[in-house]
Amino acid sequence: xxRSLGFRTDLRLLEMTGSRVEDRGTHLVIRTPAxxxxxxxxxxxxxxxPVPGGEREVIGAxxxxxxxxxxxxxxxxxxxxxxEQLQAFVDAGMEADVGTVLTAGSLMEPxxxxxxxxxxxxxxxxxxxxxxxxxxxxxxxxxDGLALTFARRKNDAERALVANGVGQxxxxxxxxxxxxxxxxxxTHAGVARYQTVETHPEHRRQGLAAAVxxxxxxHALAVYKLEKLVIAADADGDAIRIYRGLxxxxxxxxxxxxxxxxxxxxxxxxxxxREWLDGPDSRxxxxxxxxxxxxxxxxxxxxxxxxxxxxxxxxxxxxSARSPTxxxxxxxxxxxxxxxxxxxxxxxxxxxxxxxxxxxxxxTRGSAWRSRRRATQAARxxxxxxxxxxxxxxxxxxxxxxxxxxxxVRDMTIDIRAKLAEVLPGLRSDLEDSVRIESVSADPARxxxxxxxxxLTESLFKAEAFETEIVRAFDGAPPAVxxxxxxPEGAPTVLLYAHHDVQPExxxxxxxxxxxxxxxxxxxxxGRGAADDxxxxxxxxxxxxxxxDELPVNLVMFIEGEEEVGSDTPVELLNTYKDRLAADVIxxxxxxxxxxxxxxxxxxxxxxxxMDVEVRTLTHAVHSGMWxxxxxxxxxxxxxxxxxxHDDAGNLLIEGLFSGPAADVDYPEARLRAESGAAEGIEWIxxxxxxxxxxxxxxxxxxxxxxxxxxxxxxxxxxxxxxxHQPARRPR
Length: 732
Hints:
By secondary structure, this protein is an alpha+beta fold. The protein has helices spanning about 5-15, 55-65, 85-90, 125-140, 145-165, 210-225, 240-245, 265-280, 285-315, 365-380, 415-435, 445-460, 535-545, 570-575, 580, 625, 635-645, 670-675, 690-695; strands spanning about 20-25, 25-30, 45, 70-75, 95-105, 115-120, 165-175, 175-190, 190-200, 230-235, 250-260, 355, 405-410, 465-470, 480-485, 495-500, 520, 525, 555-560, 585-590. The chain is built from 19 helices and 20 strands. The strands form 4 sheets. An 11-stranded mixed sheet has the order 1-2-3-4-11-5-10-9-8-7-6, sandwiched between helices. It has a 5-stranded mixed sheet with strand order 14-15-19-16-20, covered by helices on one side. Strands 12-13 form a two-stranded antiparallel sheet. Strand 7 (about 165-175) and strand 8 (about 175-190) form a beta hairpin. It is globular and about 85 Å long.
């Protein structure tokens, strides 16, 4: 959960309009693929600031995440005024801004507007085009057509929100011309956020912005039953006085730092930023260069402030709500290569791996970031040396932020394919032994088998020189295995997760081979648990055996024994053994592969919510001949309820569920049918691509239905549909 209400509502709006939020641990990466020139739709959000000197790595990380971006946009998840702390970014050529977030639960009436002014919601295509043209007027000092293109893209995103019934944009019209506009969209239960308050320069100081902000907010409060309206503004601008006059109260500060290449007056800042990032002397500069940068920073900040005020006077809306989703943000696109030289970056055929320091708890800015800064500078200033032709990762490394601190840089070479061929026979044998154990956590009669599975798992890692232990939340709880093995001093700690319990095998007649006897058919090994998830344990074990005693990182294994029944006690285990399980990175081996021979990384899954629904229509059963046609029976009522959850195309009709874009991959129809086992003649439900419906769109499935059986049913509408595991009551 983000601390900042401003960023919390911003990110929710971005996600609702198709942006992606990627969690890197100590920071978030926000991407808006449909609007790549959107400054505050493509930015980093830090959970905390680095120590002085770490700002260069933060800026470098931005360019790594957004290699084609000319802008740099970085926010900080804090509610405090960080003006002094952001000074380091200003010294590096950025411009810092500390705005104010305000909220209101009700609005005061604004002063009346002049006769002839019409305030209403934007409805027609012409209304929205006028809004795009207004934005273009307000940002005149940009490349021809770029502002208008950007504004139209923003319109498309907002109109989708309006169509989904989560908000509306209002405007003030003078002689049918849109001169002021503001929007409010619901982001969370009871909370809505304002977007881009824009006023034409010729119509300012006429009370129009206040009237439109009030109209949009009053509409949202009345229609969506809100508890809180949220808006952001410059701390010292005209807009904040307007908002306070409507009843908004200051609640927190909003901290951002950015560089906009199209802004006038920041040329020196751009040059300085490149010096910090790319300059040949910057990598090994000493205190003198840093001191000279600090001496230049005061004049630079004065020029930046003057430039911003000049833009305001030239037409930027002084009444605009400042926020990462407020106002057009755009820049020409130019491909930017990663920094190079002195071994800090290398090609895919010669990769230098940055080994990082682990921390059992989140590092302080005074430890992790400082260590990282020193190590990174030392690595960049070291002499170049020949790189080995083969690398572990086979990909270009990225400058990463997170709860890690860079300790040293090493060259590491290994022939993974050759080592895998060497360890695979033994690995397969161990997997087969594991599959033969009936570790069905849902069956109390096989609790002893679950224990045997945990013991085998522990023994496998103990044989690889791990410190191992079987743990449980309480006596009688399912067993989990914790195993640890140290890597190089100062290396990060990686936690590898899997589970050793399996699903029941159900009717053995449905199997083509015995479910407890691993059987090879074609290129696959069949048996209950051979994939889910004893293969996950085997994958972790295989990686350990490939590296042997030359682990590149510290390793922690957490292998639980109750995933298939809901993982009731692992939360307690995590709390009890948090010191032993502390890690910088967690890798979960419990998801599917996209295809054989095609590496893939699962970064998110649809989260399930299960509920049992009971429908009751009568206090007792009645005769259908006497009461049918008047009294609804519970089975029919429940059937109609279930049918109402989807439209005719099969799209889910439950409000408030989020849908997002999926990876751009092809799932051929023949493969889809073969892998799903769809019966002949079955048509797919829903709309959108197959992977969207499978991965990122919400779904609802009826997994059970209890009702009186046809055999022996009486001629009476039942009073209710029983909950699972409750027998249907017979009428007396």
